[in-house]
Amino acid sequence: MKLTVDIIGDFIKSLVLSHEIFHHYTTLCGKNTVLEVFKNDEIGNTFHAREGLFLSIEGEKYKIVSVDINKIITIMGPLTFKNEKPKNLFFVLETPIYIHGVPIIANDGLDFNDENKMLPMIYLYEILKEVEKGPNSRIVRESDIRLYFLDSANFSEWSSGAYYTNRLRFLNNFVDFFIKKMRDYTRYFYLFNTDITKTNYQKWVISQGSSEKNIFSKELTATGIDFTLPLTKN
């Protein structure tokens, strides 16, 4: 059976972060384009989209200007199409980078110079405590999981509310989607009766006495989930 870190990695790779655009229009003399991802009473999904990130439409990349969660994404510039405009339009977001390990090891090779290429990020904290179940159990292994969904922060300038306005509300939206997809993923996961604890961390730091140390040498904010992951045979 695969290692738990790889099983989680396969699940993350399976996520499709795409949604139909039901209506779009330009604003500010064509400077921006508004994408509506809801239809009547049907709420869409904007996943982890936020200002400063990029999305793709028909292979073209656009910078996000603002997001009304699960309703509207405003992007920079007009929509352009290399070929004829398709009947149905979809936007696509890149899946966040996934890393695992203890912080010191996981930090190796991370380059935050262009933070929007690195963040948001999904980090699985190790060491994992795992229990191998008996031969007659449907569950093969149980793993205690701590997953953190990370994004950039500004410790010196942001108030308490700014962490939620600028980052945490978008991370929480993605985490809600992530949890739902985990419960639906039955290739290895068996999460039908599993409780999952969600925690927001305005400053994702390590406390050392009276001081705080940034993890990954970067000011980060985070939403974390803690749970026991029951794994079955593929």
Strand fraction band? 35-45%
Provide mean pLDDT, rounded. 91
N-to-C span? 8 Å
Secondary-structure class:
alpha+beta
> Which stretches are low in confidence, meaning pLDDT under 50 for 5 or more residues running?
none
The CATH architecture category of the largest domain equals: 2-Layer Sandwich
Write structural notes for this entry.
The chain is an alpha+beta fold. The longest helix is centred in the last third of the chain and has 25 residues, at 160-184. The strands form four sheets. Strands 8, 9, 10, 11, 12 and 15 form a six-stranded mixed β-sheet that branches. The protein has a five-stranded antiparallel β-sheet with strand order 2-3-6-5-4, with no helix packed on it. It has two domains: 4-13 and 96-231, Alpha-Beta Plaits, CATH 3.30.70; 18-92, Elongation Factor Tu (Ef-tu), domain 3 (Beta Barrel). The chain contains four helices and 15 strands. Strand 5 and strand 6 (72-76) form a beta hairpin.
Key structural traits:
234 residues, alpha+beta, Alpha-Beta Plaits, Elongation Factor Tu (Ef-tu), domain 3, 2 domains, six-stranded mixed sheet, five-stranded antiparallel sheet, 4 helices, globular
Question: What is the gist of this entry?
Answer:
With 234 residues, the protein is α+β, with helices and mostly antiparallel strands. Helices cover 19% and strands 37% of the residues.
